[in-house]
Amino acid sequence: MKFLAIIAYTLRESLAKKTFIAFFVVITITHLLFLFALNVDLVSGGMAAVQLFGKEVEQEIEIEKLRQIVIGIESGLALAMYGAGIFLAIFATASLVPNMLEKGSVDLLLSRPLARWQLLLGRYLGALSIVAINVAYLIGGAWLILSLKTGFWHTPFLASGVIIILVFGVLYAIMTFVGVTARNSGVSIIAAYLVIFVSPLLLARDKIYALLSQKIYQWLLDGIYYMTPRTAELGNITRLMVAGETVASWTPLFQSLAVGAAFLLGAIYAFEKKDF
User: Which residues pair with 52 in a beta bridge?
Assistant: First the structure.
């Protein structure tokens, strides 16, 4: 119960700092734009008309083509929400661990009958809960609006929310490790954005090999590739899932989860050994 109290305490702190509310407002505005931007009218004989921002996109299309348009829209939305959702989540939660470690706050928390690993893990899961609730609202709301307007209930779109939460969990494990060791939210943000920035470069490392003078630099690039989350590939997996296409390999997801688990364990170990 005390462990759950740390998660609840993190949620209350997010509410008090208006982070949670800001997230909710941004998502609600997005939903409202989406609600009023797209209009679909069933015409007759299995035909439909599509309007976007009041302009006629398709005057009379077959229902099957409308279904393909809906899946295309959801694929684009999933990719956009994957990028924007993670970007906002990193920014909104970066200060949670460094703030907890500030003098006075950490002394109070350590005086309670809780193991240090429970304290840090509770904080981590609290941040993850904040993002999970908002992502569920973001993806679930968009899916509901699109489904009600078109009549197509394409459930694979909901899976994109699961991928966003998992990827954030991996990145937040890295941010937790940096937060414990550096005690600085700015450095935590830089670390997470650096991972996102280098991921597509590492994916295209075959093209970089030609520019390297020695083999050791190739091994170094390969090492970094296999020891960091593969966020670029996970974004593509999200798009393929929503589009109903075959995902060739789930290795990027499993590897990224393993990297996240390693960083979280490293953060717990560093927190256990730290003097306050």
Answer: 38, 55
